[in-house]
Write a structure and sequence with these properties.
Blueprint (H helix, E strand, L loop, with lengths): L6 E8 L2 E9 L2 H13 L8 E10 L5 H15 L5 E5 L5 H17 L3 E5 L2 H11 L9 H8 L4
Parallel strand pairs: 2-3, 3-4, 4-5
Antiparallel strand pairs: 1-2
Length: about 150
């Protein structure tokens, strides 16, 4: 089986919401390039929301050490932005989903943003949009989540 290099593209939905889709063979260098290019986008800044759709990515060559390095690069790129990320791993690869959850655990321990892993694109988008919407109590959903789960 031929593995194609990691590719990615950004689509800005609005001034603070970007969809990043990736495909090909995942690599630590590919993710470093993705994060560098994302941080260089003119729209990238405080409060940015990222829907990272990696459901088409071949993660078979990624190791636990790679995941840790990628999380470290993300922490540097996102520092001080409060970046919120919905990471879509898809439902067809338990290994890719497990690596995404490992990445989530590293990110939560390293930076000031938030991240959550999803199997479905629509669920990830709904989560990102709900973070800015007030709940029935009038308190932003993100604030209620933090009170309900101090680890958020």
């Amino acid at each position: 089986m031929t593995r194609f290099p990691m590719e990615f593209e950004f689509t800005w939905i609005d001034s603070s919401l970007v969809v990043c889709r990736s495909s090909g063979a995942a690599s630590a260098d590919g993710f470093a390039a993705l994060l560098s290019e994302l941080a260089a986008q003119p729209e990238f800044g405080l409060g940015v929301r990222v829907l990272a759709d990696h459901s088409e990515l071949d993660a078979s060559g990624i190791s636990a050490g790679d995941i840790e390095r990628i999380a470290e690069v993300r922490a540097v790129s996102a520092r001080g932005t409060g970046m919120r990320t919905a990471l879509v791993a898809g439902s067809d690869s338990p290994a890719r989903y497990g690596l995404a959850r490992m990445f989530e655990a590293y990110v939560v321990s390293q930076d000031d943003g938030s991240i959550k892993v999803f199997e479905d694109f629509g669920e990830g988008m709904a989560w990102l949009r709900a973070l800015d919407s007030p709940s029935p109590s009038g308190v932003p959903v993100e604030a209620e989540e933090a009170v309900a789960d101090p680890a958020v």
